[in-house]
Amino acid sequence: MRNTFFLEKEVIEQHILEMSQFLKKNSIDAAYISSYDIFMNEYVPMQESLRYYFSGFSGSVAEVLLLANGTCHLFVDGRYHEQADIEVEAEGVVVEKCPYGQSLIDATFEKIEGLGLSSLWLDGDRTPLGHLERFKESLQTVEVGTTDTIRNLISFSSFTKEATLSKIKKLKSSKDKVRSILKEGEALWLNSLDSISWLTNLRGYGLPFQSSFMARCFATRDGIELAIPNHYLVDFEDSFINFHKCNIDSFSKEISSSQNITKLYYDPALINVTDYKNLCSLFGSEVLAPLSGGITHLHALKTEQELEYIDAAFESGDRAILNSLNWLKNSFHKGESVSELDFFHKTSEFYELEGSKGQSFGTIAGFGANSSIIHYSSPSAKKLATDGEIALMDSGGYFEGGFATDTTRTIFLGKGEASDEQKKIYTLVLKGLLNAQNAVFPEGTWGSQIDALARTPILRGGYNYAHGTGHGVGINVHEGGLRFSPTSSIALKEGNLGSIEPGIYIPGFGGVRLENIALVVKHPEFENMLTFKPVVWIGFDHALIEKSMMTEEEITWLNEYEAECEKRGTLFS
Q1: For the Peptidase M24 domain, which residue ranges apply (predicted)?
Q2: All domains of the chain, ordered by start, with CATH?
Q3: What is the rounded CA–CA span in Å between residue 523 and residue 555?
Q4: How far is it, in rounded angstroms, from Cα 309 to Cα 528?
Q5: The whole model's pTM is what?
Q6: What span, in angstroms and rounded, lies between the C-alpha atoms of 1 and 544?
């Protein structure tokens, strides 16, 4: 299944030619093209993803360095190595597979240095300020343009989906949130859409896989100035929020400078270059104060009111997932022909039956060898459920409250027994999940330590996985403020919510990933200690479990988890 927005390789090759000619004409060595839209968003509508126009790669994250000679370097991390090989067809595009632990932007800088480049063009509307500062340190000349420059070179679409903004009740008010953050004379500028949604308590579902909405936010203790597209509807009144229907990318020029602002906070990693320059012109650079991470650290800690929505959402998600897996297994055993695409669509139906307002990311539905593609995004109508194979489903949705869910399960499709290798890799992944999920640790423990707990059983089995063990979950399915990876120094705190999702992936054979979302809570017995409380309760496939590989403690953890699943009626059988 292709993306609904698709470009043939000949079109992409023409785009590369047009951009390289622009660079030659202006005596510039290369152009940096990010995956971001003007909101510094993760999930960008494909027609808004400039990187796609020059590579044909549809994954959610990648970077492009396009040279004046027509070579286009596409940088992808371990989640997308296989997918990039499959999707990239245009001549001149070179897939740069970054090893695990190397960031895409670091790999881009390494390539710039290796090629001896001295000048670069970038789109200030879609490049974070922090990237620009690094580019200036490494290059003699950095030309900052805008998206309009590219619009003049290629046929570039825009994403305009209508949305109605709604206010989520039962949450701490926007006024109370703002006044707990800012002092008199201080202001806050937000580009991050999940932070804007959290601060305003608004949801819009105006972008793919997000409950948030297109906006820019300028807040003071007196109120919030919120820029939204002209085609958005607002069906309520809020005396603390002043809505501006306008051209969002120019909103930073339109804020009233009559306010006596002595300090304006912004996140240097998420403000784009254009907005930063406009704010400097309006308020003066001396007033702007970098706030690393913005307010993510605040909404990374879930409140009791938020957890009511979150628990209810995951209960609905659990039912949708279990029903999807049971449908697949039962249809297969009845001898019915079921494709990946059938399974993909049926999963969406079950989510809708549970009241889902949309997906929190594109469902991953892979059979057999396709289950080894970590972010498999093209379920096939031709790939059928086959006896003796495994099926992996990674899915999530939005329900009332607008908080994302995210869960992965892998099951066996077979009328006989699973193979020794299938059982081995499944059990190793299960051991990793159970070891991390049942961890006991003091507040301040780094994410890297939780990653090690999940990864160690897998490493001891002779395997590894090219992604982190977990990420924060909130209004966006990938939320900052929490990260489990070998290099994460983010400290865990009570109230953090995140995924635990170890995996093993064998190209040509198949892959296993098991993912639960868990809340960091006080340990019920040990003083000054924390542990995890799962919010996902779906049983595992015992056809793939080899208990002889598990310790007594791991078996006890499994039994305790599945006893709760049985109470909830969510065992897999």
Answers
A1: 317-520
A2: 9-151 (3.40.350.10), 163-297 (3.40.350.10), 304-568 (3.90.230.10)
A3: 21
A4: 27
A5: 0.94
A6: 29
